[in-house]
Specification:
single chain; mainly alpha; globular
Length: 157
C-alpha cells in the first residue's frame, strides 16, 4: 500500500476524532493531527524505501550531528569537532538502520499499535493532563496505527 492511501485514512480518522471529541483546544487539534500523520505512516518505518524511513533517518542524522557538534565544539577545534560529529552520527544512524526489524514483522502488529498509543498517552498526559483529552488522543493514535495495519491486511498480534 502506498503512503498516500495511509495518509488519507489517517486524515479521515482525524476528522472523525474532531467530530466526536468535545472541548478540543487548538493545541489538542494540532497534536492530534501530528499523531494521525505519524500513526498512519509509522508501521512502514522498517521499510528502507518508505518516505517515513528516509525522513526519520535524515532528521535523526542531522539532529545527532548538530547536537554532537555543538557539544564537541566547546572543547575541540572546529575541524575535529566536525569530523568526530560526522563519524559518530553516521555510525549511530547505520546502527539504527540495521537494528530495525524486517518489514511487516515487529512493527506491523497490534502490539506495536498498543505501544504507540501508550507512548502518545504518556506524552499527551505530560502536555495536557486532561484525562479525557489524553485518552481521546491515545485512542486516535491506536486507530491510525491500526488503520494502517488494516489497509495492509496485516492484523497480527
Amino acid at each position: 500500500m502506498n503512503y498516500k492511501k495511509h495518509l488519507i485514512l489517517g486524515i479521515l480518522i482525524f476528522f472523525v476524532f474532531l467530530l466526536f471529541t468535545e472541548n478540543l483546544r487548538i493545541e489538542h487539534m494540532i497534536f492530534g493531527f501530528v499523531v494521525s500523520f505519524i500513526g498512519s505512516l509509522l508501521p512502514d518505518i522498517d521499510t528502507k524505501k518508505s518516505r517515513i524511513h528516509k525522513t526519520v533517518v535524515l532528521f535523526l542524522g542531522m539532529s545527532l550531528f548538530t547536537g554532537l557538534f555543538i557539544t564537541l565544539y566547546k572543547s575541540l577545534e572546529f575541524a575535529y569537532a566536525m569530523l568526530f560529529s560526522l563519524i559518530i552520527s553516521f555510525a549511530l544512524v547505520i546502527i539504527l538502520i540495521y537494528t530495525l526489524p524486517e518489514h511487516r514483522k515487529g512493527l506491523h502488529t497490534i502490539r506495536a499499535a498498543i505501544v504507540f498509543s501508550a507512548f502518545i498517552w504518556f506524552c499527551s498526559y505530560l502536555a495536557f493532563s486532561d484525562v479525557y483529552i489524553v485518552n481521546a488522543l491515545a485512542i486516535l493514535a491506536f486507530m491510525t496505527y491500526f488503520g494502517h495495519l488494516a489497509l495492509d491486511n496485516s492484523l497480527k498480534l
